[in-house]
Amino acid sequence: MFGRFKKSKNQESSLSQQQLSNALAQVSLPHWPTPVPPEWITVDGQHAQLTVPFAADNSILEPLKQHPELGQLSWSLQRNIAKLPNSQPELPLTFGNIIVVSSGKGGVGKSSVSVQLALALHQLGANVGILDADVYGPSLPTMLGGQEQKLEINAQQKMIPHQRHGIWVSSLGYLTDTKDAAIWRGPMASAALQQLFRDTKWPRLDYLIVDMPPGTGDIQLTFAQKLPITGAVIVTTPQTVALADAEKGITMFRKVGVPITGLIENMSYYQCSQCGHRDAIFGSDGGASVAQREQVPLLGQWPLDARIRAGLDEGKPLVAEQPEHELSVMMKNSAYQLAVELYRQAQTRQPATR
């Protein structure tokens, strides 16, 4: 059972394999619903390594360090992020695990959520790209900065994505003038999106976040049916109008065979920066109710906060500029939950390949 456990020639482990087995059965990692799988553990003398198949940072080691017996070992973290099954099994998973971030309607902060999730996954040790699929209103160049830098085209006619704050980004906004409007019918916009996806020379990625346009129309259906998607994240606000559209988005993805990885309730509340009072100006727990009703994991309830808005307006996202800020920690926790849930759901469908 513990075939990966090994002992150093120079130093014996203070714990026997039986003790390790019993101790691991008592420990659960954050948001991981079962005890630590023994195959994730390697022990060499007094050093132990946890190897996880999803994005995570060293905080995941705390339950192991705090256990009376396991805490005797010196722990380190290794990531071996798995390539998971996708919605189009016949297509090669060239660009890592593809996560679409979608919303039933506009104005719920989908792009800002996409950016912060991508940056947070990077801070959790993953190689991350982000594709701006909102071809009618690309906003990633504003939120990530470098709007004046156009995408380069190599000799193979592939677009070279920009690297911003440690993640790779491709957007129509890096190809056009900021005031240009994409006056396209649905099929043309869908074709442009597929070309942007396939003709970007992405490096090796663990996750590719796709910031989808709002709605459940032609672009969304084309992307869902023709591109290999690992999972979808639904963004909504707590208000009734947004919730109804969020449920339509969930229904659409399920009909085309795309797993719903989770839901984020954005603008969950406004917190006064002066007195700390919280005001649920868009309603209370609406997104949480939809998640429960649809049996979708709730990945987080993010506040309406001027600091998040200001950072994105300046091309300096809070989670990148101030990773230890309480809001950044909250967003990183959502990203970690997303990575765990993506892997966990894949295990219930079929074994992952590494």
CATH topology of the largest domain: Rossmann fold
Secondary-structure element order, N to C: HEEHEEHEHEEEEHEHEHEEEHEHHH
CA gyration radius, whole angstroms: 21 Å
Name the CATH superfamily classification of the largest domain. Answer: P-loop containing nucleotide triphosphate hydrolases
Protein name: Iron-sulfur cluster carrier protein
GO cellular component, one term: cytosol
Function: Binds and transfers iron-sulfur (Fe-S) clusters to target apoproteins. Can hydrolyze ATP.
GO molecular function, one term: 4 iron, 4 sulfur cluster binding
What would you note in describing this structure?
A hairpin with a 6-residue loop joins strand 13 and strand 14 (278-279). 32% of the residues lie in helices and 18% in strands. The chain is an alpha/beta fold. An 8-stranded mixed sheet has the order 8-9-5-10-4-11-12-15, sandwiched between helices. Strands 1-2-3 form a 3-stranded mixed sheet, with no helix packed on it. It has a two-stranded antiparallel ribbon with strand order 6-7. It folds into 2 domains: 17-79; 97-349, P-loop containing nucleotide triphosphate hydrolases (Rossmann fold, 3-Layer(aba) Sandwich). The relative contact order is 0.15. Helix 3 packs across helix 11 and helix 5 runs parallel beside helix 6. The longest helix has 24 residues, at 326-349. It contains 11 helices and 15 strands. Residues 1-11 have low confidence and may be disordered. One of its GO terms (molecular function) is 4 iron, 4 sulfur cluster binding. One of its GO terms (cellular component) is cytosol. Keywords: ATP-binding, Hydrolase, Iron, Iron-sulfur, Metal-binding, Nucleotide-binding. Pfam families: ParA (PF10609). This is Iron-sulfur cluster carrier protein.
